[in-house]
């Protein structure tokens, strides 16, 4: 009954018995075909006749078309649809739709319509009064055509990501920097991008959308509308720095990450699952579909499925290089001119210039990665967190990586052989990277010709590798089906190293455009190394200290034959002979520079040490806790134990095919024993390396003769000698200060505060600093040469009295200023003869957040820093320590010794962590003048720090007996009010409310038939009371807040009536009694005074 009679008649004529063969799909297909035929017919039939339908009106989507009960209605709709294809603008006669014209102003275009007597709604040849298609503006929803919309005047077609800048919030350090932008421009010819018409599936929900393949993007994205429609679960969140095209300033934006399945619309078996970042919009413009002429498709792609049909829709998914080759199969067909078809799992995808299609938007989407400065920032914050942050969360997938490694490791010919930890989904998409390696080697070869000395150094290193069988020529019989990868390489010259000044480094992160690198295909693996902070603390525990190094540690582990071809590289024995092809080598050992190499080395060593747990139990345990990559750091109480441990270490590693060398110690007696065993040479120095450089222990300089630790400032001085006053240079300078223990804290704080000030300004990395900041920066730089004079003892328990130790105490001081907060820790050692010695252990400083906090809150943050630092020190030293904590903030002490639930959330959360890590009874008050952490919270010059006895040994009274310590006043809070103490306001309100409810109820519940009505009446009464008391002057309907307050009123009342005793104890001491029926549920009062479990 809905269809016109002639349409129904034609359908029955073609399908015979209507009732017997009725099929909705056939009916829809018939209607679509019939409509297209009538559209084509209408184009010819109305070309010479007058029509009330304007040729330039906006296109009408087929789904929104009104079906008329006459043929005339159907023909009119078809005519309107067909006439849209005549693209001559009413305003400028250009080759585009009239409603898209931007020539002149909206006012001028409206005057053109007025002069020509055209419709303001559809631009047709009739007045606005006569128009029956009164459509609202697509831009502002006003009653006019978008061509004459004044609200969008002067707005350019900018990228969607530009609008995201205004919505994003600038955050802190960025682990990984990305660039994402989209631009649009009008061009006369169409360039087709790789788009596909696919099904997007999530469990039972499926939708159809367009997909863009972009191997120039490093990540994949999905439109937010699709994610919401399919209700895709968020698996994690990631942060990117977003740059709009041509803009230098990044804006940090956090993206949700979801999993989706992309499916061929005709062949469900062809599908791929990907992870994508959720974004507001993929492209700033609608990309054109591939409307190819039928003869082109028939000639070149007959019998093949096109990936993108004529489905017009916005791009909902962008697949980047991370999944590009999971979709593209590799087949290529050149159609005509610059148009190419590539084979994908969704069909044949078209890309290139199509001269037959005009008037479209050219879209550009760019995602690039900028890791240099982000890497420096990440390194800086990792160093800042040493000693006060818990170890990284372990990825559950690391367990399977380790288990697989253990199952595949082999021991052959006194050496271990391992397999690479491949990612199962990436291994077989790794390309050989040979073209990239060839291009880079050609540039290197030309450098060899210009610099023969460089070639000699290069050749010497690789010749040594060849002699040691670390590398080998690729045999001619190599399996052609094996996965191969060619590594580009270059030299690195480090004059600041005692050995290996010239090294050849290989780039496992190299890849061609749109391809993955070797590092992308390998698991990094779990971190099996101890924390540097813990190692340095344990290094200070024993009077006899020693270190050693595993010679070429990575290169002593063989790689399984099956995995060797992914470490191929090119070299030549004659760089001057251009006609000679370079030789192909490959590594037979684990290569330093591959992201999984540190894991493979650590896992191999730990696997080997398990063999010796029964033979050398103490030494095996020592090595398990004292190895960091290829360095061994430890010590013993006497020379004999140190000697036995070192010789057993030599034997254990010799059995693994590894050699220990570069033995260093502060004990002359131990060094002589090593000389007898040929472990060291007789002419080794106790102060510097043979090269004249200082000895280093995990990056910290060690003077073995003085047995002290210090900072070697020469590298930083050299860098600053050619400095520029920019943000980049300042951050690079901070990155050159390695002070994990923190004894340079007060001096380094000054440059951290300077960095924060610079960060507030709209400066790019290389912009000149303002004059005031430049002066402060230059003053700091001029003091750097004095850093080498700052030293701390390596051994914590230097027994200058030659008597035993009776007691060891750990004293942590904390303080804060408006700029920063800090903590510093000392050991207080009591000897048998009642003498006392104090020694610096560690310190940490933190810059105050940009969001201003009150000074008491910053003091509390400093106290929390103390608690965290003490926890790590106790855990690392593994000693029976008596702990005491000192602060000059009485409010902080009151918070710590009080009940956390009484205070506001900020205070409550931090106090709870402090109490978890320490005992409130161990916290004491000390005057600010004798608080050493005051220096670390304000910063100082290197010369004042050098002469400051309090910083390196603590306050003078700490070396005295406890009766000389600061007096503890229990009445410390006289004169302070509740605002300073930050009590939770809800506590007193709940008690007062409880009394009110118990004495007299506000309303009688039995008089109300529904809860909703009760809440509304209560809300009106409460408003009336507030208006009488002139608390509020609210008028109009009830607000959501008022209704919520009414609901809370009754919930509180009922809870108070049933659990009055629990309310009183929670409001007073913060917890219920053990005999309460609610005790096992852990009840508490929330911010609104509601009893929660």
Automatic annotation (TrEMBL):
GO biological process, one term: DNA biosynthetic process
Top-level taxon: Eukaryota
Listed InterPro entries: DNA/RNA_pol_sf, Retrotrans_Pao, Rev_trsase/Diguanyl_cyclase, RT_dom
SUPFAM superfamilies cross-referenced by the UniProt entry: DNA/RNA polymerases (SSF56672)
The Reverse transcriptase domain, residue ranges: 544-662
PANTHER family per record: PHD-TYPE DOMAIN-CONTAINING PROTEIN, RIBONUCLEASE H
Protein name: Reverse transcriptase domain-containing protein
Biological source species: Araneus ventricosus
